[in-house]
Structure formats: structure tokens, C-alpha cells
Amino acid sequence: MHTDVILKRFEQPDEVREFPLGKFELVTLGGMTIGRATYQPGWRWSVHVGDQLGQASCHIEHVGMVVSGSATAAMDDGEVIEMRAGDVFYIPPGHDSWVVGDEPYVSLHFLGAESYAHD
């Protein structure tokens, strides 16, 4: 049995979801959708994504890894964590997020990518 190897790159994503100060690029392969989030300084989920969806907090469950920069995950219960380059994260539904500092934030998303920033 022979299976074809598939290679894809985020430089040529299958889909791009753009919003103010950010974008979310998606590639789908092997039955999985992987996302790359790129957010500029000043980006905040509730303002730049949630407002367009009519949502005060993100209802997506995320598993991912921070590639560069820093951002928060601010849970609806008040807990706030900061994620930095190299961190692998799980964030349950019910949160806001924003870029920390003056460097763009880039992360890869292995769970939740197909429905993120999508109505």
C-alpha cells in the first residue's frame, strides 16, 4: 500500500481569515485543519474579532503553540495567563486575548482552527 505524502506551507494557505490587526491562515491535510494566527501589537480578540461575530468572548477550544511574541488568555472567570514563544497551550472556551508588547504575536493552532474567527 502506498500513501502520498502531502506538503503544504502557510505561505500558500488553503484559506485566510483577515480582520483588523490580524489574520488567521489555514491549511488542511490528513483530515486535520491547522491554523497560524498572526496578530499585530494592539490586537484584541473582543475588539477585532468578537465585535464582528457579536460575541464578547471566544467560544473556541484551542490547543496550540506560540511561535513568537506574547499574548494573554483572559478567562471569563478572571484568570489571566501570558503565553510566550515556545509555550504549548490549551485554552478552554470562554476567554478574551490580546497581544502583549510591541512585537507581533504568532501561534499555531492544532485544535479549534476550522471554526476560529468564522461565523
Automatic annotation (TrEMBL):
Record Pfam families: Cupin_3
UniProt-listed SUPFAM superfamilies: RmlC-like cupins (SSF51182)
Domain (S)-ureidoglycine aminohydrolase cupin, residue spans: 45-95
Protein name (Swiss-Prot/TrEMBL): Cupin domain-containing protein
Organism from which the protein derives: Sphingomonas telluris
